[in-house]
Design a protein that fits this description.
Layout: H1 14-24, H2 27-31, H3 46-51, H4 53-68, H5 74-88, H6 91-103, H7 108-116, H8 125-140, H9 145-179
Helix pairs in contact: 1-4, 4-9, 5-6, 5-7, 5-8, 5-9, 8-9
């Protein structure tokens, strides 16, 4: 259940219908089958997007750009998202992205350590730089010069900029998901 009642498909405004169609027909739909529940409601943050479609369409486009048109490798991107989700204890975000992280090549031992709040054993320098950067930013709300420098050296300016945008976007989603008490769809893991 969620604190925010679902927007019923039969009652969509034209703007809501356009946004709904763009989400269920967009690239997310091919990556995750849980965007829509059995009654046709959008799950996750997308229900909140529908409440304010003029704003929701921009949130949706930002998410699509970060996930499907950015240069940050999928493994690093999904490691960043699950690190943020764990820091926020955001069940829906974790449920949506822990499987994507596994599919992108993040090892199960790493995923388990992140979920438990432990520092994972990361042997790849880029993985470690991304994890340390996101963890520090989520925990401290800032990043030290040393952490920033290491991330910049490992992934470069463009991908670090994408990483910061991803952290900002998924922090906003975690805020929405936790405030509205959005639970993961049936059959998806909710660790907190």
């Amino acid at each position: 259940m969620t604190r925010l009642p679902y927007v019923e498909p039969a009652q969509f405004s034209p703007e809501q219908k356009d946004l709904y169609d763009s989400i269920v027909g967009g690239p997310r739909a091919g990556k995750r089958g849980s965007l829509v529940d059995g009654a046709g409601h959008l799950t996750g943050p997308f229900n909140a997007f529908l409440r304010l479609p003029a704003l929701g369409k921009h949130w949706s486009q930002i998410g699509e750009t970060l996930r499907f048109r950015a240069s940050l490798p999928r493994r690093l991107f999904e490691l960043a998202v699950i690190t943020l989700a764990a820091g926020w204890h955001c069940n829906h975000e974790w449920a949506a992205h822990s499987g994507l992280a596994r599919d992108a090549g993040v090892g199960g031992d790493i995923i388990d350590a992140v979920r438990q709040g432990s520092t994972p054993q990361l042997t790849d320098a880029r993985d470690k730089a991304v994890y340390d950067f996101v963890r520090e930013l989520v925990d401290r709300r800032s990043v030290s010069d040393a952490t920033y420098k290491t991330a910049l050296e490992q992934i470069g300016d463009e991908q670090l900029t994408e990483l910061v945008h991803a952290v900002a976007y998924y922090s906003a989603l975690a805020t929405m998901l936790n405030a509205f008490a959005v639970i993961p769809p049936k059959g998806m893991e909710a660790p907190w």
